[in-house]
Design goal:
This protein is mainly alpha-helical and 41 residues long. The chain is 95% helix and 0% strand. The protein is rod-shaped, with a radius of gyration of 17 Å. Keywords: Membrane, Transmembrane, Transmembrane helix.
Length: 41
């Protein structure tokens, strides 16, 4: 039971990381792309 709860917590943390991290990385990459685009073009 303890191992099962650890696995469930791990899956939940991974899901939370993806749900929170992906939009942040997406926004950051868009801003970085805009800055690079303004400098080089």
């Amino acid at each position: 039971m303890n191992e099962l709860t650890q696995v469930l917590i791990h899956i939940f943390l991974c899901f939370l990381w993806v749900a929170v991290g992906c939009p942040l990385i997406w926004r950051f990459s868009i801003r970085l792309g805009q800055l690079i685009g303004r400098r080089f073009f």
